[in-house]
Structures are given as C-alpha cells and as structure tokens.
Write a structure and sequence with these properties.
single chain, mainly alpha, 14 helices, globular
Length: 329
C-alpha cells in the first residue's frame, strides 16, 4: 500500500469512523456482558425455550429493532456523534467549569480555613477506595439533579423531550439525547465531581486517583456491565437491591407514557436520590407499559426534527408575549 493511500485511509478513519465508535459503553466487553445478562434472564424467564436462535429472537425482535423510532435513533446517533465531536461541545463545558474554578475554590477555602496539608501526604488504599465511592456518588447525584431539573424546568424539558420521544428502546436509544441536553447533564456532574476533587486535593495536595478497572472508574465499570439493558425491552430487575441501585426495568418505567409513571426514577446508578426526593417507583414483576410522548407522537420522527424542534419549543417559551393584567373597574 502506498503512503498516499495509507494516509488517505487514516484520514477517512479519523474523520468518519472514529467519531461513531468512541462511546465508552460501546466497547465489546460491555456489549458481551449485556448479552450474557440478557441470556441469563432469558433462561430464567423462559425455561421452555432453548438455543441461540430462540435467544436471538428474544433479544433482537424485529418489531423493536426495525421500528421507525429505532431507525431514527440510528440516524440521529451517527449525526450527533459528529456534532459533539466537531463542535467540541464537551470541551466548552470543561472550559466553563475551569473558569469557575470549582475544585480550586473548594480547596482554597479549606486551606484558608484549616490550613494546608503537608505536600507529601500520600493516600492509602482505604482513602483511595473512599475517594472512588464518594466521586461515584457525586457523579451520580450530579446526573440525578440535572435529570430532575431537565424534567421540571419547561425550557430544559423541550430539549430533554428528545430522549423521551423514543417509542421503542434499544441500546442506541441511550444516545437519543439533544446536544444541549447532554451539555447540561455534563455540567452538573462535572461541578459535583469537582467539589469532591477539591476536598480531597486539600488533604492530598500531591494528588489522588480513583480505583480503576481497565481504565474505567471501578464503580462505573461495574455499572456499565448491564447499562445497555436500561434502554431495551428486557425488563431486568434487581429485587431488593432496587432500593439501592437503579435497575434496567426501573429506567424503562421512566420512559413510560403512563401518567402515573411521569417524573419517576431519575437516578442513574443509585436509587437513593429518588428515595430521598420521593420519586422512586419500583415496577411490579412482569409490568408492561407503552413508551414515548403520546400527545406529541410523530413530532420527532426524523433526525432533523430531533435537532431542531427543541429550539423551536424553547423559543416559544422564552419569547412568547406575557399576559398584561387588565385594569380593574
């Protein structure tokens, strides 16, 4: 192969292919772990069925994966990856948090209040484990809080509607999120974890790192093992552990079109935030529900509309004429 052809192929890869396959949850190990868990669920709930062909029909039903809503998901995913990559929206959020100096501000405040810790302070394994857990809690609380706000603030809900407009759920539906929506969520969790980083930086100025598994935060890695099931038709529950962790079926219920399920189960990893906020709802065994936004069915039926309609809805809310009170008498 000539150097010119090799250079051209490299450019094609980095410009067109790499942006589409860089999502951390799309690594083969998480796809494989999802299939293993789905297969275990298949065997326990359908003991009369056996064989990979029966499992394939169960795990990848045509009515879900070939549904028009799923087709929009596939197109939107590809387009959205290019938007996020080439507009560098995530870097704008990182830059904003850097300008706010959240971590530095927290550390400086603690240093000024309690005095600086010795520069050579070294964290032991227990401290690293605590840092890993507290960072995961902060990360998850940031996601919970942003999710809660996205549902309760009308202008933000216009952007979050994109995610809830899916009429079927596949793992790719996880990425059916408007770029503005993703930036808001990223901002909340980055601020939350920056606070934790500032606290630990006060005690360990030389630095501290999380426990990791294959370069993923340890708790995040464990969560990702079943993460793809959250956006699927496979209702895996955690039993009593659902009071501590958000199971896939709990998030599926969050997508329900039934009014009694609205604004429930905002959590990502831990369900304790929903329990504290009164928004926890653990579905009954074998519960089934329709998905999507029935009042706006058909409104988000193309990738272009997923990108543009939230701006239209937000503009109507922000710039609609305010009612002027009529004078009495």
């Amino acid at each position: 192969m000539s150097p010119q052809v090799e250079h051209f192929l490299r450019k094609i890869y980095w410009l067109l292919i790499h942006p589409v396959i860089t999502q951390p949850t799309l690594k083969w190990m998480f796809i494989l772990s999802t299939l293993v868990i789905a297969y275990a669920f298949f065997l326990t709930t359908r003991p009369q069925s056996r064989g990979l062909r029966a499992f394939a029909r169960f795990a990848f039903p045509r009515e879900v994966y070939a549904h028009p809503s799923a087709m929009v998901d596939y197109k939107f995913y590809v387009a959205n990856q290019f938007v996020l990559t080439y507009l560098r929206l995530g870097q704008w959020v990182v830059g904003l948090v850097a300008i706010l100096k959240v971590a530095d501000g927290v550390r400086s405040l603690l240093d000024a209040t309690f005095g600086a810790a010795p520069a050579d302070s070294t964290p032991n394994l227990a401290v690293v484990a605590a840092f890993t857990l507290i960072t995961a809690l902060a990360y998850d609380y940031g996601r919970f809080l942003s999710h809660y706000v996205q549902h309760r603030v009308p202008v933000l809900w216009e952007f979050h509607k994109v995610h809830h407009s899916a009429e079927v759920l596949t793992p790719i539906s996880s990425f059916r999120a408007h770029p503005i929506d993703q930036m808001i969520e990223f901002l909340f969790r980055l601020i939350a974890t920056s606070v934790v980083s500032g606290v630990f930086a006060h005690f360990y100025p030389s630095g501290i790192e999380e426990l990791t598994i294959l370069n993923y935060s340890a708790l995040t890695f464990l969560f990702y093992l079943a993460a793809h099931l959250r956006h699927s038709h496979i209702p895996v529950g955690y039993g009593r552990l659902s009071h501590l962790f958000v199971s896939p079926v709990m998030h599926q219920l969050h997508h329900s079109a039934a009014r009694e399920h609205f604004d429930k189960n905002f959590g990502f990893i831990f369900s304790l935030w929903d329990k504290m906020a009164g928004t926890l709802l653990i579905p009954e065994r074998h519960a089934r529900f329709d998905l999507g936004l029935p009042p706006e069915a058909g409104r988000y039926d193309t990738a272009t509309r997923l990108f543009l309609y939230p701006f239209v809805g937000a503009a109507r809310l922000l710039f609609r004429p305010k009612a002027v009170p009529r004078p009495e008498g």
